[in-house]
């Protein structure tokens, strides 16, 4: 199995930390004339049963200009082309405006979305449960996986979940 995995989320939720943990091999050359989405390729995850190409998805923030509009459209194209989306959040008590804005955009794609609640090492199980339920109620997510990118907790479960969508 192989496919493209797009990673999205607010600044500081741990996207780079997770990608660095997952990606074992950097991509040197894809094509002499790359497609737009290929510019965002961060690396390949090689597993026993699968190979996943990880794409960074910057630009999912409120556009303040025409250039911002263009970046949002470009990000939406990336999401639409991916086989699965990893949407990273932190275990917060309330879904904030930054995440609400991203979720409005995520609603526009038909790509399966895996919600990744990162930094579970920073919260207790009651807090995590509150966070889990708020996101679950939106009905936007095919799966919800709590992880700690820095401690490496639940990373194998995350990979198995992604594989189901490739
Ligand atoms: P990005 O902006 O989404 O790429 O976030 P980064 O990967 O740069 O991480 C932002 C900060 O969160 C850094 O200080 C990380 O060390 C920290 N961080 C990332 N993952 C975890 C985690 O699982 N637990 C904790 N406690 N901190 C984390
Ligand atoms: Mg980053």
UniProtKB/TrEMBL annotation:
Protein name according to UniProt: GTPase Era
Record bears the keyword Signal: no
Q: Where is this region: G3?
A: 56-59
The encoding gene: era
Q: Which GO terms describe its cellular component?
A: cytosol; plasma membrane
The topology of this chain with respect to the membrane is:
Peripheral membrane protein
Main localization, broad class: cytoplasm
Q: Where in the cell is it found?
A: Cytoplasm; Cell membrane
- Recorded family membership: Belongs to the TRAFAC class TrmE-Era-EngA-EngB-Septin-like GTPase superfamily. Era GTPase family.
Q: Which GO terms describe its biological process?
A: ribosomal small subunit assembly
In this chain the Era-type G domain maps to: 1-166
**Which parts of the sequence are annotated with region: G2?**
35-39
Annotated segments matching region G1: 9-16
Gene Ontology molecular functions: GTP binding; GTPase activity; ribosomal small subunit binding; small ribosomal subunit rRNA binding
Its assembly, as annotated, is:
Monomer.
- Chain intervals for the UniProt region annotation (G5): 147-149
Known function: An essential GTPase that binds both GDP and GTP, with rapid nucleotide exchange. Plays a role in 16S rRNA processing and 30S ribosomal subunit biogenesis and possibly also in cell cycle regulation and energy metabolism.
Question: At which positions is GTP bound?
Answer: 9-16, 56-60, 118-121
Q: Which domain of life is it from?
A: Bacteria
From the UniProt entry, list the residue stretches annotated as the region G4.
118-121
Q: Which UniProt keywords apply?
A: Cell membrane, Cytoplasm, GTP-binding, Membrane, Nucleotide-binding, Ribosome biogenesis, RNA-binding, rRNA-binding
């Amino acid at each position: 199995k192989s496919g493209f995995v797009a990673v999205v989320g607010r600044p500081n939720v741990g996207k780079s930390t997770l990608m660095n943990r997952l990606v074992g091999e950097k991509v040197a050359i894809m094509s002499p004339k790359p497609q737009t989405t290929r510019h965002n390729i961060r690396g390949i995850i090689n597993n026993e049963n699968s190979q996943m190409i990880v794409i960074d998805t910057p630009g999912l923030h409120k556009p303040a200009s025409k250039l911002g509009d263009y970046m949002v459209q470009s990000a939406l194209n990336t999401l639409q082309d991916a086989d699965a989306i990893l949407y990273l959040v932190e275990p917060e008590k309330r879904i904030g405006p930054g995440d609400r804005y991203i979720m409005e955009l995520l609603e526009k794609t038909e790509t399966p979305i895996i919600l990744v609640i990162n930094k579970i090492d920073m919260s207790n199980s009651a807090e995590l449960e509150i966070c889990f339920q708020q996101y679950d109620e939106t009905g936007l997510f095919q799966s919800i996986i709590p992880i700690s990118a820095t401690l490496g907790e639940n990373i194998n479960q995350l990979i198995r979940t992604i594989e189901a969508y490739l």
